[in-house]
Protein 1
Amino acid sequence: MTLKNKRIVLGVCGGIAAYKSILLLRLLKKEGAHVRVIMTKNAGYFVGPTTFEALSEKPVCMDLFEKTDDAAISHIKWADEADAVVVAPATANMIAKMANGLADDALSTFLLAVTTPVLVCPAMNTNMLLHPATQRNLETLRSDGFEVLETDFGKMACGTTGPGRLPDAEYILDRLKACLFSKDYEGKTVLVSAGPTREFIDPVRFISNPSSGKMGYAIARAAEQRGACVILVTGPTALEAPYHVEALPVDSARDMAKAVFENMDRADVIIKTAAVGDYRAKTQADQKIKKQNEELVLELVQNQDILKELGARKTRQFLVGFAAETRDLAANAGEKLKKKNLDIIVGNLVGSPDSGFQADTNKVTLFFKDGSSEALPLLGKDEVAHILLDRILEKNGN
Ligand code: PMT
C-alpha cells in the first residue's frame, strides 16, 4: 500500500550521499507520509536543515538540547509515534554507534529508543565499508533485527570504483514499504502473469489489447514485499519490473503458455492477471502484407486457454484467475471460476477510465470457490493486490 498518513522518521548522517535523502524525502511526501527529519551535525555540512525543514514542512531535529520544538524530548516522542524509520545515508560512524548502543547525539539517541522497523541504508567509501569493523557492525545490526540495505556498486565521490554507493531513492522507498509488511508470504512462490499478449499477423503488425500490466505488476510487487519469491511472466509493457522478482518476458499467448507451464511446479500460488489473446492468425505472413484489396480477411484460430489447462493440471497450487467483463460480472466470472477449476476469480469491471485496463485504480469483486463473494470499492491497484493476497492466505488455510 502507499505510505499515506504513515509517520516516517528520516535519519540523515554526514556523507556526500546526503543529497539523495532530499529526493527520498520528496518521494515520501508525495506518498502522503508525515516525515520528521533527524540529522547529525555532520550531515549539516552537506545539506542544510532548512532544505529538510522546507520539504518536510516540519522542524528538523539536530541537537538534543535545542530549545525549539521540544527537541530535548522529541526523540522519545517521535520514537513512540513512528511507523517506520529510514537512516539514509547511514555512515560508518552511525552504524558503529547503533551496533554498540551508543547514544551521544539526537539521531543515535532516537535510534536506541525506537521499537518500530528501521531500514539502514549504508553509504561510504569502499574501504570504510569493507573494513572488518564496519562489516562486523553491519552483521550486528542485521542480527539485532535492523533491515540493512546492500550498497550499490559504482564510481564513488572520492574517485574509486566499488561498493559503497547509496541506492536510488526509489529503491529505498520500495524497501521501506517492504519493511512495513509482515512477511506472511515468506517461503511461498507466487507466479503472476501480467500484461497483454501479441499475436503477429506479419513481421510488423500484431493483434493485442490495451492491458498495461499495472494490475499484475502490483500483485507481483506486493507479494515480493510480503516475502514471496515471485515469478512474473509478462507480456510487453512499458513498466519496470518490480525489484527482486524473476521477470520472464513473453510476446504471444503460446510463449506465455510455455513460460507458465515450465514454472508452474515451482509455484504455490498462481495468479493469472494477463489479458491473453483468445485468437491468433492461422498463418503468420513471412513478409509485410501489402495493401491490395478493399477488404482483407484474416483467418484466426483459438489459442490454448492457459488458465483452464492450469486448472486441469494443478496439484497443490492455489489458482486465481481474473475476468475482464463489461457486463454480467457475477454470471460470467462465476462460470469461468467453475469451468477453469479456480479457487478465486477476480471479476473486473472494465470499460470506464478508472477501472480495468491502464487505470491506476480498479473496481473488482472477488468470487470464491465456496460460492461467496466480496465486492471491493474503487481502490488503487496496489490496494487491490494486497487484499487479494490477504484473501488467498485466508482461503488457503494460513
Ligand atoms: O494490465 P492492466 O492495464 O492493469 O489491466 C488489468 C486487466 C484489466 C487486464 C486485469 O485486471 C484483468 O481483468 N485481466 C484478465 C483479462 C482477461 O483476459 O480476462 P478473460 O476473461 O479474457 O480471461 C479470464 C482468465 O483466463 C484470465 O485470468 C486470463 O489470464 C485467462 N486466460 C484467458 C485466455 C487464454 N487463452 N488463456 C488464459 O489463461
Protein 2
Amino acid sequence: MAQPISTADATRPAVAANVARFDGRIKVTGGARYGSDPSVVNPAYAYLVTSAIARGYITHIDDDATRALKGVLDVMTYENTAGRIKPGKLFSDHGYMATTIQPLASERIEHAGEIVAVILADTYEAARDGAHRLKIAYAEETPSAGFGSAGTETVAGKAASSEHEDPAVGDAAKAFQEAPVKIDAAYGTPTQHHNPIELFTTTCAWDGGRLTVWESSQNVYGFKNGLAQQLDMSAEDIRVISPFIGGAFGSRGSLTPRTALIAYAARRLNRPVKLVATREQGFTIATYRAETRHHIKLGAGRDGKLVSLSHEGWEVTSRPDNYMVAGTDASTRLYACPNVYSNVSIVHADRNTPGFMRSPPETPYIYALENAMDELAVALDMDPVELRRVNDTMVESIRGLRYTSRSLMECFDAAAKAFGWSRRNPKPGSMRDGDWLIGWGCATAMYPTQIAPATVRVSLTPRGTVKVQTAAHEIGNGAYTVVAITAADKLGVALDKITVELGDSDLPPAPVAGGSNTTASVCNVVAKACEQIRARIAEAAVAAQDGPFAGADPKTLVLKDGMLRDPTGSKTEPLSAAIRRAANGALEAYAENIPHGAKPDGIDMLYRGQPNLVGGAKMKDRIQFAFGAEFVELRIHARTREIRCPRIVGAFAAGKIVSPRTAESQLMGGMIWGISAALHEATEIDARAARYYNTDLAEYLVPVNADVADVQVIMLPEEDHLVNELGIKGLGELANVGTPAAVASAVWHATGIRIRELPIRLEKLLETKAI
Ligand code: MOS
C-alpha cells in the first residue's frame, strides 16, 4: 500500500505557502514507514557475508557449521547462485545499476566488502550467527587502492564515455604563459560515504509471479525496470514501495546488487525475505563519493579578470566501471574567461564502484576552482568578493550561451551584508581574539537547474477533497510539501483537504529524485493536471445557462478559497456546485509534462525508469544554474589548532521557492554538510589491503550541534520564466557546493596556511608553520 499523507498529518493549517512540512507530524510521531518497516507475514531473514579481500578469488567455501545451525534455511554463494541473476548496465550507461560488479556470480572478488554469501534463516540472530560460522578461503592478489597505488589504470574521460566532453575554448596554455598574475596548484577531495541514518535494507515478497519490493529508493520506476531485467521477468509484475526514505543523498538512486539477490532468495525459499545490512556493509554494498585530484591553473590580468583557466581532474573508480562525475562542465563555465582548457581522467582501482553523492560533480570540482579563486584574490591583493564581481557573466565561456538567470552577485552582496564582511581585515591572522585566530572566508555555490518529464494523477471530489498521486520520492527534500502546496494553490482548496501519495511504482511515474529536479519536475506537472480540472469546471460553468458564469470566458475563471470566481470576484459559486456541474462524482485528471529540451520519447523513458534530466550546461540553446554565496567564520586555536565554526551565512537564488520552510531546511542542511566535508568527513583506506577502516559513525566523522553553531540562510527572490512554467530551479544540492572552499578561505585568513586537500583537520595546520 502506498502511504497516503493527508491533512490531519500537517502540523499546521494552511497559511499561505509558508507551512510546516506536510509530512512532519507523521515523521515525528513514528507513523512514517521506511524501507525496513513493512509488515510482511513470517519473513525469513537474510544476513550478508562480505569479502575479506579486495582482489583475488574464493578457493573454498565450508558451510557445514552454518547449515547445521538451528533456524538456518539456506546459504547462497556463487556455487549455487551463479547465473541466476542477470547483470545489468550502469545507471550512467542508460541502465539502472550502481555497479556492474555482480556478486555471487563467480569465485572472482573485485573489491573488499563484496557480497560473497547470503545466509537465510528463521530469525535475524540465526542468520547472523550462521554468517559468522561460514568459512571462506581466498587466494589473494595484491590490490590497488587508488591514487598512488601500483597497478591502477588511468583512462581519459573521452575514452571512457562517448558522451563525455572536455570543455575548452581559445588557447589556455598561451594565455596562461602571458598572464601577469598566475595560480598553479593541486587540490584533492577524499573518499566519502553517505551514511544515511536508515541502513541499506530490502524486503521482498512473491505472490505467484508478482514481486513486491520494499526498499528505500530514489527511483522506484528505475528499480522496478532494473529488477525486471536482472530477474528476467516483466516490469509489470514488479512493485517497488518507498513512501519514506531515511536519508539518501544519491545512495539510493541506482539499483544495488542486493535487491535482486533478496528477490531471488525469496523465490528460492517461497517466503518473504528481509535484509537489513550492517552499517559497515553499507560502505561496500552501496556507493560513495569518489576520491578526486585536481590541477588548476588560473591566469589573470592585474584587474583580476581571468584570461586563462585550466582544470584537470582525476577520479577513482572500480575496475570494470567507468563512473565519473566530470564537474568541469560547471567549473569551466562559472566565470567569464576567453581561454579555457579542461581534461578529466578516471583511475581504475580495486574498489567498489563509486556513485552519486549530493552534488556529485560540483562538490569536488567547484571546491577546487573556488579554492584557487581565493588564492588568486590573495595574489592580486583583491577582495575575494570583488574578484567574483569582475569575473561575473551572463554568458558562459565555452559555447557563448546565455544563463536563463543568474543572481550570483546579488547573493554575494546580500550574504556579505548579513555577515558583516566589510569589517574584515584582509591580513591573515589579524582578527585575533585572545588565543583564537579568527578567519573569515567566502566562496560561490552553483548547481545546474534540471527538470525531467513527469506524470501525475489528480482527483477532486465534490466535497472539495483532493488526491494527488505520483511516484516521486520524499528523500527529506519536502516532496510531499511542495506537491500539496501546488495542488492547494491551483485548485483553491485548503491544505487540509489534500492527500498526497508518493514513492510507489504503481503510481504514475515521476523521475529519479536526483539532480535536485523533483520540485521543478513534479510541481509543474501537478499544476498542469490541476489546470485540466479547472478548465473542465470552468467550461461546464460557462455552458450552464442558469448559472452565474453563463457566457463568460472560461479561461478567466479561477478556483480560490473553495469557490469558483470570475476575475473580479463579483461572481462566485461554491466549488462543490461547480464540480457537480462538470462531473458525476470526482473530477480526475492525468497529466504528462515534457520540459523544454527533453527527448520526444521522454515519457516512455520515464515509464521505463530511465532518467532524462535536462538542464545545466547540457542544453543546446541556453545554460541554467542556481547560485549562492557562502560566508564562513572560523576560530582556530593559535597553539592547538582546534578549528571551530561559530557562524556561516549563505544567500541563495534558485528561482521560485515553493515551500520556504523546506527550502530553508535543505539549504541549511547543505551548508552543514559542507562544513562536514570541509572539516570532518573522509573514509580512511588501508592502501595495502584496499579496505575502508572507519566504517561506523563513531569513526566516520560528521558534525554534531557543537560543530555548527549559527547557520543563517537567505533566500533571494528570483524570477526565471525560461527554466520552466513555474520558474522553479531546485536547490537540494546547491548549498553544500560552496562551503568547503569558503572554509579553506577562512582557514587561510585565520592562519596564512593554504590547505588544498580536504578535509582540513587540525593535524594539517600543525604540520605547517602559521603566521
Ligand atoms: Mo543526488 S546525489 O543527485 O541523488
